[in-house]
Amino acid sequence: MSIRQQNLGSIVKPGFNPLGAQTSVTTATLFSWGQNAFGNLGLGNTVNRSSPVQVGSLTDWAKTSAGNSFSLATTTSGTLYSWGRNNSGQLGLGNLTNYSSPKQVGVLTTWLNINNGDNGYAIATKTDGTLWAWGDNADGQLGLGNITNYSSPKQVGALTNWLSLAAGTSQTLAIKTNGTLWAWGRNQLGQLGLGNTTYYSSPKQVGSLTTWSTISCGGYFSVATQTNGTLWAWGQGSYGKLGQGNTTNYSSPKQIGSLTTWSKVFAGYDYAVAIKTDGTLWAWGYNANGELGLGNITNYSSPKQVGALTTWSSGYGGDNHCAMLTTDGALWMWGYNGNGQLGLGNITSYSSPKQVGSLVTWAAVTCSNEATLAT
User: Is 23 exposed, middle or buried (0-12, 13-18, 19+ CB in 10 A)?
Assistant: First the structure.
């Protein structure tokens, strides 16, 4: 399994605005660690690592996205790179060959936002606002109106107003510049939010609201925030991951509580974490590996505060591990660690946040099923 989430393709800290549009960018090296069976760490081998290892020598990485054993990254010049598993053409390189080092996808320098899907697919936007997809398409998750796999990027329609993206377990969400929400792909548990369980191979608008802000896909469920600070969830409700105080499935967006102080939300496979405007961190859902960071392994069906810090800035949810940044540039991780994906130099799982080293220069982080990438 792999998460499939996340809203903007990578964590936003210095150099990016909250909706994912690139602004000024600082110099950034790329590091990876965790499971590496298909070369998805980009280190030229298939050896697992339990501590951060630098990927190549480039210092102009911009955004990263880690999927189920494959990775994507852009540079500040707008080039796109991919590496790792490629059985469905998810690397976008026109073939089905695995690569253990970054390979440039085409020659274009106009790539902006990126995100990996769980079942071997990828989606991306360009600086002109167009939407592109490639890889596995068995459930129509590429949005191309068919179920054909593609090993090279294909444009989704002709629109030029796509903004942010989220890829899940074969379900895809996107927000347009007008604040509308769109969904397509697998939908057997209502994870598209369209009020039904019908699969769609082309984008369909979710309701009529124009106030969607951040989005994230997990395993068969989705979470989102709106510009008014409200928090929403829909799809499969097992383990309480919809935050509704129950385990009920919902095929349309349901508001979590009544608060209007939610800033960002990130979905793991069966859990979610969210940041409020006051900088506090909250979590709910599946917790057998301590992925909620609450110091226990109890599932929760409503948001629970993680510790007492008020300096959380952004984060990412993996299958069963979580990564978060604080405003001082420190990186914190917790949850399952069987392949060293927490970057702590061991394979011990932790149910409370642990700082990765002592550096306070981390800018972005993204998680896959059992690996982590960070700049």
Answer: exposed
